Each structure stands twice: as structure tokens, then as C-alpha cells.
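Propose amino acids for all 250 sites.
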């Protein structure tokens, strides 16, 4: 029991550390800033953070959510992203164990978190995230070459449908980033799970965005990436049993 608990503690710690880096990506990539060369600093006063200001989760709690120097409130986004990434890592390893699949899906989860926040704010998915997920898909094919056709079809299964919508609506119906996202994720998940992910993303997006329009007056234009990302993660974690359950009715 103890070794198992320690394994998950280590996985969680890795997750929140990478989650801290995701916050850097979320803030700097849309601004075109370097994610490695510029030192972390307070957004309000410019104070360069020390190593003890950058301990994921714990520094935020210790500082009570404020800058050490100017006392400006720190966005709650930082601990939320760190915690979410850590929890997802634990969930993924609980489903897949310590394996190549678990590592690939963990790295996928981190990319989806970062691109979702950026897309939600800017309505754009940085191409680098899609390239990263595509690389994970290529690794998946290498490690599971016997089922390469499943992944190859997955690359096209949803993305071609979305491309058709893009062409018919002249770019008004779907964004190019969403098409690339579904292509890259399809290469990693395979055709059955990427179709499930798309269906789930559409359902979640329609429900949540409709509620947002009624409650907060949100416009009709929505960032589709976050909803697709939620669908992808559900399909990655529980896609096979969900598909088996659905097929049991036929």
C-alpha cells in the first residue's frame, strides 16, 4: 500500500510542477514572449520571483495569493492549473498504470489544458500545441504499430468532416486550429475514440455555452477548443468502456 501511495504522490508532484510551467506558457505564448529566457516575475510590480516563490501550489498558499513585494493579488488560475494537471496525471496513471500510454496521455493532458485556456481567451489555438500532440501520436504509432491503421484513420475521421464545414462556411463555421487539433488527437486516440471525443465535445459545448449565453450574456461565438479538449480527455480516460457500453445496445 505504501509504495503505491508514494508513486501517486510522486506523480502528483510531477504534475503540479509541469502545471506551473503550463501557466508560463498560457501567459507568454499569446504575447509572443519566450517561455524559457525570461525569468518569472510579478505581473504588477515586475519583482523577479525567487525559487521559494515558485513552489507549485505551496507558494501560493504560503503567500496567501499575493505578491511577496507589492501584495497584489495573484490570479487563482495559477494554483488551479497546477492542481488540475496534478490530478489528471494521477487519474491517467490510475487507468493505464506506469506505461508508455500513461506518459503519452499525461503529456496530452498538459497540452490540452494550456491550449484550452489560451483558446478560451484569444479564440486561437497556437500551432505549437497541435504539433506537440501530433508528435505524441507518431510515437503512439511506433509503440503500437500493429494498430497503425486505426490511428491513421483517426487522423482523418473527424478532421476531414470539420475541414468540409470550414470550406462550406468559408471559415465561419469552424476554426483551422480545431481541425488540426482533431487531426492530431485522432492520430493519438484512434478513430473510435476521436469520434466519441468529438461527439462529447459538441454536447458539452452546446450545453455549457448555451448556459453562458443565458446567464452572462455571452455572444454566439465560442472557443471550441476547450470543449473538444474535455471530450478528448474523457475519451482517453474512459473511451473504451463507453464505446463498449454503447455497442451493447446493438
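Proposal:
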Amino acid at each position: 500500500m505504501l509504495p503505491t501511495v508514494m508513486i501517486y504522490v510522486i506523480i502528483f508532484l510531477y504534475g503540479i510542477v509541469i502545471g506551473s510551467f503550463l501557466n508560463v506558457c498560457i501567459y507568454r505564448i499569446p504575447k509572443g514572449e519566450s517561455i524559457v529566457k525570461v525569468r518569472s516575475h510579478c505581473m504588477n510590480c515586475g519583482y523577479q520571483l525567487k525559487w521559494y516563490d515558485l513552489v507549485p501550489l505551496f507558494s501560493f498558499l504560503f503567500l496567501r495569493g499575493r505578491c511577496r513585494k507589492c501584495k497584489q493579488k495573484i490570479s487563482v488560475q495559477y494554483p488551479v492549473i497546477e492542481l488540475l494537471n496534478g490530478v489528471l496525471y494521477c487519474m491517467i496513471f490510475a487507468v493505464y498504470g506506469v506505461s508508455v500510454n500513461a506518459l503519452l496521455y499525461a503529456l496530452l493532458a498538459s497540452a490540452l489544458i494550456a491550449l484550452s485556456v489560451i483558446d478560451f481567451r484569444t479564440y486561437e489555438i497556437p500551432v505549437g500545441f497541435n504539433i506537440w500532440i501530433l508528435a505524441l501520436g507518431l510515437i503512439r504509432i511506433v509503440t503500437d504499430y500493429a494498430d497503425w491503421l486505426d490511428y491513421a484513420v483517426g487522423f482523418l475521421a473527424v478532421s476531414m468532416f470539420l475541414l468540409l464545414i470550414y470550406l462550406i462556411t468559408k471559415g465561419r463555421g469552424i476554426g483551422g486550429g480545431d481541425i488540426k487539433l482533431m487531426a492530431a488527437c485522432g492520430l493519438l486516440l484512434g478513430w473510435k475514440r476521436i469520434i466519441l471525443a468529438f461527439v462529447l465535445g459538441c454536447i458539452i459545448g452546446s450545453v455549457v455555452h448555451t448556459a453562458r449565453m443565458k446567464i452572462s450574456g455571452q455572444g454566439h461565438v465560442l472557443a471550441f477548443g476547450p470543449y473538444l479538449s474535455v471530450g478528448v480527455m474523457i475519451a482517453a480516460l474512459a473511451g473504451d468502456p463507453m464505446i463498449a457500453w454503447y455497442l451493447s445496445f446493438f
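The chain has two domains: 1-96, 99-250. The two ends are 41 Å apart (CA to CA).
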